[in-house]
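Lecture 7 notes: from sequence to structure.
We start with the chain below.
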Amino acid sequence: MNQFRQDTGTLRPVRRNYYDPSSAPGKGVVWEWENDSGSWTPYDMEVGITIQHAYEKQHPWIDLTSIGFSYIIDFSTMGQINRQTQRQRRIRRRLDLIYPMVTGTMPKAQSWPVNPGTTTSPPAPSCSCPQCVLVMSVKAAVVHGSSGPLQPPGTRKNIAPSGVGKLPPPPGPGTKPLDTSGTMRDPGKTAPSLVIRRQVSNTPAGATAGSPTSPQGSNRKPGRVALATLNRSNLQRLAIAQSRVLIASGVPTVPVKNLNGSSPVNPALAGITGILMSAAGLPVCLTRPPKLVLHPPPVSKSEIKSIPGVSNTSRKTTKKQAKKGKTPEEVLKKYLQKVRHPPEEDCTICMERLTAPSGYKGPQPTVKPDLVGKLSRCGHIYHIYCLVAMYNNGNKDGSLQCPTCKTIYGVKTGTQPPGKMEYHLIPHSLPGHPDCKTIRIIYSIPPGIQGPEHPNPGKSFSARGFPRHCYLPDSEKGRKVLKLLLVAWDRRLIFAIGTSSTTGESDTVIWNEVHHKTEFGSNLTGHGYPDANYLDNVLAELAAQGISEDSTVQEKD
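Predicted structure tokens for the same chain:
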């Protein structure tokens, strides 16, 4: 069950989804929203199922934030409300064909062994290749080892497969029976078993990619039978037996693993190798990539709790300005000591000797270009002329950061645009933290116009991917990180406006050197759990921004 792209070699897993007959697609219910052109656009299948479930429960409204969408659906007005902009759109509920919305009859299922009484054609001679011999021997063992004889298709029509609940009762007279996929079919036809298809698609790693599974009617060797009638345990037995025979006969096996890497090279090599080895009849071991889990299961409002020890559940950006009346020279005077006899070293800002005048060629500060000063805490020495120019090109918030060692003087603030930060507890655990609940943080920043502190004042900026959901374990260290993130938010240090490193888009909201975990149940992109070092790493990143436990005390003061 994989899709292989021939031009790039990308290998992706595929699956056949089954929707419960009681769900929205199972009933043919489609939820749609009205777009700007006045036409109707259907919601994604999972969103429609969530909306329909709340509608059947007779809830007055539903918040879609829990599944990653910043909308509220109001059933009383049949409207969709954007939580950020408060814009409203009309929605509607209509009935359509039952999923998968196809008509016609299903082809007759192929079963094994073939009932001699149902065919007039002579049996084809059996193939003598090692693979077919193994298949036939395993099938024979299955028949002889079962509790009863294998019944022909005609006698098995109304018997539910093993491990599956009873099928729905047959419809009334005059209607065609409905199979488990919701497709109308002819009473005289036999539909392929959904359960057997699932067993084949779920074959574990180690199953041979070169097994004979070509459909009926294709050009293949006579006597080569399909594996669709084997259950999971027998498929495992077949794969192991086949591998042992081929290895014993001197044919090497090539295991193809490591398909979970972020680079497309590994899946490409694995896919190409798998095809080549399958064509040669060799067993190929393919590992199945794990599934990306961005969001937790849906959470009701009653399950969302405030975080003990943390006041409120949200806060907005507050723009802090430098104190008025203080010139750059007055600000820097607090952090500098004058040096009368500078050493024979270079100023790392202008790259001129400290004994010579500053080489800065921009707007002229009011200080003399040959004055030299030493930062009081770290001891690095610069031209005061250069430090004033550097301060004027920054945020002008009353703070200074040493360009050599990054020591921060004063309280550093950033240029994060206005927005909202929400935080609360949800009753689910993160991978690697099974003993505690989860802190969910939701950042919401709308697009707007850049201010004087931004790269292009007066120009509009975009805000992609908001609201952004992030996750922390509700442990002692997790709450500590949250409190420091709140300080960073108040100081406008979480986001900035710049050029996205992933899309290349300029004048957009980007992360600002404080990493967040945006995957809830996986870690495929490196932004999820489990990650044993994440909390320590983010504490170090916050410290580099001048935020530590002392900062929380300063904020209270």
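Points to note: The first strand starts at residue 2 and ends at 4. The radius of gyration is 33 Å.
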